[in-house]
Amino acid sequence: MVKNKFFLLIFIYAISCNAQQKQDWIQFVGSQNMFKKIDGYFTWDGDSTKSLYEYYFKNKNYKIKYFFPMLKDSANNNCGYFNILGNRFNIKRKFEHNIACQLDPTYMDVYYAIFNKKKYILITSINDGSGLTSSKVICNLFDITKTSSIKYYSLWSMFGGEQCFGDFNKDGKLDFLKIQNWVDGKKYRSIISVMSLINGSFQAEKGSRHYIIFEYNKEFKPRLLVKNWFN
What is the pLDDT of residue 47? Predict the structure, then answer.
């Protein structure tokens, strides 16, 4: 029994290592490559006297900052926030159980896309302290079409990232693939479902008629189990 548990932990660790880099489940859906990665990286401004550590995205064309909370910063409940084009966006209470309050700037990637005449910036990351063992990827999506009224959408997906976005049901609305995992006995399985941007929020499909279930084999490669997807 102990041996089985040990193997399961190693198994979970191994497939978690590629959370942001290897979105190999996309083969079951089909990549739409909507978002393109922006060159640059987040770097600390070097000032340790501030109440929050300030990181800025090193790319002169995009004014993006992330403020990482310090333990003494009780006013913000140890929750970070973004500054996009001069506008502040709090992360606090945007995710259940505040799972994204302390995002790791060293694992942040920034992407850009245009869809239906709307301009988007996507910032993906994992939570601080989780390192490469994290499989839950935080997707911070910003609609920057109107810079005076930027919209923030807080999303997450297991083994997710920029490949989670597209128009998968071909209804002309922006979709997000929500991937959730669970351990079924000795099997580590995942289910993919779709959420669509409707009336200002991402909403799950009514009736959950379309989904994909897969699992990782001993070689840590995804194997399709069930596919009820869009034509």
Answer: 86
Q: What is the pLDDT of residue 129?
A: 55
Look at residue 37 in the predicted model and tell me its pLDDT.
96
d(CA 128, CA 149): 29
3-state secondary structure of 184: strand
The boundaries of the domain holding residue 190 are 2-228
What is the SS3 assignment for 30-48? CCCCCCEECCCCEEECCCC
Task: Establish how many alpha carbons lie within 13 A of residue 172's alpha carbon, considering only the half-sphere containing its beta carbon.
Answer: 2
- The residue with tokens 């910036």 is 121
Residue 107: which of 4, 19, 2 has the closest Cα? 19
Query: Is the pLDDT reported for residue 74 higher than 90?
Result: no
What's the number of domains the chain is made of? 1
What's the pLDDT score for residue 231?
A: 82
Residue position matching structure tokens 């991402």: 202
**Beta bridge partners of residue 77, listed in sequence order:** none
HEC assignment per residue over 190-214: EEEEEEEEECCEEEECCCCCCEEEE
